Amino acid sequence: MSVIVYTESENGKFKKNAFEVASYASEVARQMGTTATAVSINCMENALLGTYGISKVLNVQNEKMKPFNAKAAAEVVSKALEAEGASVVVISSSSDAKYMAPLLSARLKAGYVPNIVAAPESTTPFKIKRTAFSNKGFAHTEIKTDIKILGVSNNAFGTVETPTDASIEDFSISLDAEFKTKSTDIDKVVGKATIADADIVVSAGRGLKGPENWGMIEDLADVLGAATACSKPVSDLGWRPHGEHVGQTGKPVASNLYIAIGISGAIQHLAGVSSSKTKVVINNDPEAPFFKAADYGIVGDAFEVVPELIEKLKEFKAQNS
Amino acid sequence: MKILVCISNVPDTTSKINFTDGDTKFDTNGVQFVINPNDEFGLTRAMWFKEKQGATVHVATVGDASVEPTMRKALAIGADEAIRVNAVPTDGFFVAQQLAEIVKNGGYDLVIGGRESIDYNGGMVPGILASLLDMNFVNTCVKLEIDGDNVTAVREIDGGKETLSTSLPLVVGGQKGLVEESDLKIPNMRGIMMARQKKLSVVEPVEGIKATEDVKFDKPAPKGEIKLVETVDELVSLLHNEAKVI
C-alpha cells in the first residue's frame, strides 16, 4: 500500500520539483505507515531519490515519452499504482503535472486536490490544506475516493533529506493507447530559471516605462539566478510575453523572494504572489498598494535603485562566494 | 463545427474573499459574479470560429438559478444557446461528469473550458471531461487553429511554449493568449436584447462521483508591517541576514 510519486525530469536529470514531491511523498508515507515509491521516466540519476526518503524507484525508459505526453504519463503512473497496490499519488504543480493530473483522476476515478501547501492534516479521513480563490484563501479539503491524487504547490513543502537505500527496478511498460496529441515543436528558454520553480523572481511593471528598459531587470535576475516576470498591463501591452504575466489570470508565484519593481500592486497581482515568502517592493509612489503587502520596500526611482542594487549584489556575491 | 464553451460563474477578480457559516461557505454578500476570465478567452475564440469559419456556439455551466445572469452575458456576447445543469458545483469531478453528459448528448466537435476557475482553482474540469469522453485534450492552450478536423494548438509550458498537432473532437483548457485581452467581447445593447430571446435550457444533474469536499476555509494570516529601508546596502543586508533569502 505504498505512496506513488511522479518525479519529473528533463534531459535525463531531475527537475527541482522532483525532490520536493519526493520529500512530500515520504512524509505522506510516514503518516500512513508505509513507504514511498517513485515513478521516474527517462531519468539517469534515480539513486538521488533515496536522499529524500524514497525506498523504491520504478525506472521507466521509453522513447514514446520523449517529449512529455500527458496521456502517456497518466497511463504509466496508473500502471505503477496498480503494480504497487498504492492508494495515493503525489505530483508537482508544474505545467506538465497539471496537464496529466485530470487525465489520471478520470482514469482512476480518484479525487485530485491541486495547490497543496502542507502535509496532510489527517489520513483517515484524508484531509489536506490547499490554496483557493487565487491564493486569497485556503480550503481544507477532504478526499472521499479510495485513490487520492495530491498536487503539491511549488516551494510549499521544500526538500527534506531522510536518506534511505532506494532500490531501483526497471519498469517496462507497453503503452497501449494511440496518442493522438503529438508535440511538433518546443520553444523554451534553456539554462534560465523559470517562474514555476525559481527560488527568486524579479518582476517589473509599467513603472519601467517601456520594453527597452528591461535590460536592467534581466541583469538583476542574472545576478540573483532569478526568473523574470511582469505585471498584467506589461504583458497586455506586449512589452513581455504572456508567459511572464504573474497574477490571478497569469502565473502564480511561490518563490522564496519576489522583487516587484515599478508594480503598483493591483489586488489580482497581489493574489498571484501571496504565496511568495519574502516580498520586496521598489516604487517611487509611496502610496502604491504593494507597500502594504511587502516585507521590505524602497521608495525610489527604479532607474536609480535597480542599477545600484545590481552593483551591490555583485559585491555581495564576490564577498560571499 | 459545433462548439461548447464551459463557463464558470466566479467572483469578480477584485472581490474581497470572506467566509460564512463557521467558515464552511464562501460569503457571496456584496460580491459581483462574472464569467471566469479563462473561460471568457475561450468564449471569444469560439466566437471567432463562428464568425470566420462557421460554427454553432453553445455555452454550458453547472449551477443554481443565480448563475443565469452570467449565462445571459455569454448569450449577449454571441453564443447561440445556453444549457444550465441544475446543481451546485461543489467538486470538479462532479462538474466534469455533468458536462460530459451534455457533450455526449450534443455531439460537439470542440469543447473549450478555462484552464482553471479563479475561485476554487481546481484546474481539472476540461481534462476529466476529455478523459471521460475519450476526446483529445490540450491544456493551458494559448493558440488554437482548426483546419477541417486537423488542429494545431500551442500550450504554455514552464519556461516556454509547445506546439501540438491533434484532431477533433477536442477539449481545450484555455487561457489568455487564445485571444488578446483587447479582443474580448463586451455585450452591446443589441446583443443584450437578443440574448433575452435565446434558449436557456435547464437540465437536471446525473448521478456522479463527488470525489472531494471542501470542509472548511480560512484566510492567510494578516501581514506584518513593511520594513521601509533608505539604502540599497541596508536592503541587501536584510535579505541576507534577516530574511535569509540571498
UniProtKB/TrEMBL annotation, chain A:
Question: What organism does the UniProt record list as the source?
Answer: Maribacter algicola
Please report the name of this protein according to its UniProt entry. Electron transfer flavoprotein subunit alpha/FixB family protein
* Family annotation (Gene3D superfamilies): HUPs, TPP-binding domain
The UniProt note on the cofactor reads as follows:
Binds 1 FAD per dimer.
Matches recorded under InterPro entries: DHS-like_NAD/FAD-binding_dom (IPR029035), ETF_a/b_N (IPR014730), ETF_a/FixB (IPR001308), ETF_asu_C (IPR014731), Rossmann-like_a/b/a_fold (IPR014729)
Which cofactors does this protein require? FAD
Q: Where does FAD bind?
A: 206, 262-269, 283
Q: Does this UniProt record's set of keywords contain tRNA-binding? A: no
Name the SUPFAM superfamilies for this protein: Adenine nucleotide alpha hydrolases-like, DHS-like NAD/FAD-binding domain
Question: What family is this?
Answer: Belongs to the ETF alpha-subunit/FixB family.
Tell me the ranges covered by the Electron transfer flavoprotein alpha/beta-subunit N-terminal domain, including all copies: 3-183
Please give one Gene Ontology molecular function term for this protein.
Answer: electron transfer activity
Keyword Ribosomal protein listed? The answer is no
One Gene Ontology term from the biological process aspect of the record: fatty acid beta-oxidation using acyl-CoA dehydrogenase
- Pfam families for the chain: ETF, ETF_alpha
Which UniProt key words apply to this protein? Electron transport, FAD, Flavoprotein, Transport
TrEMBL record, chain B:
A cellular-component GO term for this protein: cytosol
Q: Give UniProt keywords alphabetically.
A: Electron transport, Transport
The answer on whether this UniProt entry bears the keyword Electron transport reads yes
Which SUPFAM superfamilies does the UniProt record give? Adenine nucleotide alpha hydrolases-like
Molecular-function annotations in GO:
electron transfer activity
Ranges where the Electron transfer flavoprotein alpha/beta-subunit N-terminal domain occurs: 23-205
Pfam families in the record: ETF (PF01012)
Give the record's family classification: Belongs to the ETF beta-subunit/FixA family.
Recorded protein name is Electron transfer flavoprotein beta subunit/FixA family protein
